[in-house]
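fyi for ur records
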Amino acid sequence: MSNHDMPRPAVMDELSESQLQELEFQAAEYDRKEFLEIATNYGWDDETIAQVWRWFEIQNNYPLDMLDE
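which gave:
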């Protein structure tokens, strides 16, 4: 399975449409700091946040080596 075939994290199914749009916006802006703050407010742990961020990176073809910046 390639990175582009990565399934959407199941935790995202629990979000409202507005919550999902908020995360999508931060990911599109590549604003990891704000994304982290929002996801933390959703009660997600670090592993879940990293998994969702990585999924957005793959979907948007962002450079994966920038994951931890």
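The two ends are 26 Å apart (CA to CA). thats all i got for now
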